[in-house]
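Quick start: what a row looks like.
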Amino acid sequence: MKTIIAIALLTMSFASHASSFQCKRYYKGEYQGQVSVTANSKAEAEVIAMKKYEEMGQPVDRLECVY
């Protein structure tokens, strides 16, 4: 039982450890700016950044998110 609790606590600590990503937006092959997002992974950062750009009405051909 103690092992299960320890694993659950460890898993929650990893899941709650979000990082800051800088996501650059490219449109028609040219850099157009960047946003900062907080996410648990690069894939999640890309989803969040895409949503931000859509809300701002900014077109995106390609995103590049880095930690």
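That is the whole record. The first helix runs from residue 2 to 15. The radius of gyration is 16 Å.
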